[in-house]
């Protein structure tokens, strides 16, 4: 049988041979709190739902796990789907973005310019093969990914922050390829990677709290100050964005296999990131210093986008910012906000 989650013109097909699971019919469509604004954590609360009688549960593994409340993706209301579709599209693009741009919305493109840990090198190579699939080489690519995933599962997670961050990036890339690659041979490993993602997330959280946000302007000369600030920014922002993206992806994985997991509100309250496309897209220390001194940048704490909605321009918001904003508010609202600013999504 074939199960799919519709996303625009695409369908993510998951093929499994499971009998229908009988659930009661006393179900309602799942939706987020329609009164919750982008300043509220309620907007990102659990997508709780029940499964209707005769519904198949969607899974990404070879077995059914009752770790959360059972639900069917068919029970998610359209307004709720619009909050996850954009994130799914950005996740699907990550393997290509990693190879072509050396980064993702949560990993700065210059972060590993001087050194890339081995597991991330392997993931980079896996992404290149994944992007080059052509029907003839599918089995070879699937085998390569399976072997690299076995390697990363067998290796304990590192303690050093930079190595831990790279491990998170590698695991996310593998999981994206496993879940969205459409190859049934890879789904069982997606199930195995999910606990590792959660373990890495738990290890990242306390380290994120140690990151310090600088204040004041940056001198242009000598360039050492700007270079140091830029390097610190790349690591700090990649660290923070990775945590949010990782937990977002974990939640999506549970949803795709027909379960919901409790939402970690402490993640939002204990995490922050700097929203600025100008800072994120800077290609040199000099460009970074100009953006820091002359352009707006918004420190987002507790997922509170109040200042962004009132003071930001569309040019200030990068792809990661759009992921989070749409996840909280919905695609139509963010399209509407951009339209009032003379821009489009």
Describe the 3D structure.
- This is Transcription factor domain-containing protein.
- It comes from Ophiobolus disseminans.
- The longest helix is centred in the last third of the chain and has 33 residues, at 224-256.
- The chain has one domain (2-340).
- It has helices spanning 78-101, 118-131, 138-154, 161-180, 187-208, 224-256, 265-270, 277-280, 285-294, 306-311, 319-329, 331-340, and strands spanning 2-7, 10-15, 69-70, 259-260, 272-275, 298-301.
- Strand 1 (2-7) and strand 2 (10-15) form a beta hairpin.
- 51% of the residues lie in helices and 7% in strands.
- Mean pLDDT is 80; it is low at 1-70.
- By secondary structure, it is mainly α.
- The strands form 3 sheets. A two-stranded antiparallel sheet has the order 1-2. A two-stranded antiparallel sheet has the order 3-4. It has a two-stranded antiparallel ribbon with strand order 5-6.
- It has 12 helices and 6 strands.
């Amino acid at each position: 049988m074939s199960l799919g989650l519709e996303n625009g013109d695409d369908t993510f097909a998951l093929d499994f041979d499971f009998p229908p699971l009988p659930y009661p019919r006393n179900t309602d469509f799942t939706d987020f709190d329609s009164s919750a604004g982008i300043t509220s954590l309620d907007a990102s609360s659990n997508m709780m739902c029940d499964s209707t009688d005769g519904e198949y549960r969607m899974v990404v593994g070879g077995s059914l796990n009752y770790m959360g409340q059972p639900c069917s993706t068919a029970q998610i209301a359209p307004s709720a789907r619009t909050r996850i579709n954009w994130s799914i599209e950005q996740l699907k693009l990550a393997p290509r973005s990693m190879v072509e741009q050396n980064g993702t919305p949560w990993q700065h493109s210059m972060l590993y310019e001087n050194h890339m840990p081995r597991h991330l090198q392997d993931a980079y190579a896996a992404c290149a093969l994944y992007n080059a699939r052509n029907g003839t080489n599918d089995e070879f690519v699937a085998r390569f990914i399976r072997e690299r995933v076995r390697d990363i599962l067998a290796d304990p997670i590192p303690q050093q922050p930079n190595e831990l961050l790279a491990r998170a990036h590698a695991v996310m890339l593998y999981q994206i390829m496993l879940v969205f690659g459409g190859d049934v041979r890879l789904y069982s490993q997606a199930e195995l990677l999910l606990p590792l993602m959660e373990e890495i997330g738990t290890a990242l959280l306390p380290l994120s709290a140690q990151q310090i946000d600088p204040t004041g302007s940056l001198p242009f000369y000598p360039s050492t100050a700007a270079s140091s600030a830029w390097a610190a920014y790349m690591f700090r922002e990649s660290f923070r964005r990775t945590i949010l993206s990782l937990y977002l992806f974990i939640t999506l994985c549970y949803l795709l296999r027909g379960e919901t997991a409790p939402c970690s509100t402490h993640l939002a309250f204990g995490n922050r990131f700097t929203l600025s496309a100008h800072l994120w897209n800077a290609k040199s220390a000099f460009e970074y210093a100009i953006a820091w001194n002359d352009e707006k940048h918004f420190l987002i704490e507790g997922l509170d986008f109040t200042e962004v909605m009132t003071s930001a321009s569309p040019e200030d918001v990068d792809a990661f910012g759009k992921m989070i904003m749409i996840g909280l508010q919905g695609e139509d609202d963010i399209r509407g906000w951009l339209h009032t600013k003379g821009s489009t999504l």
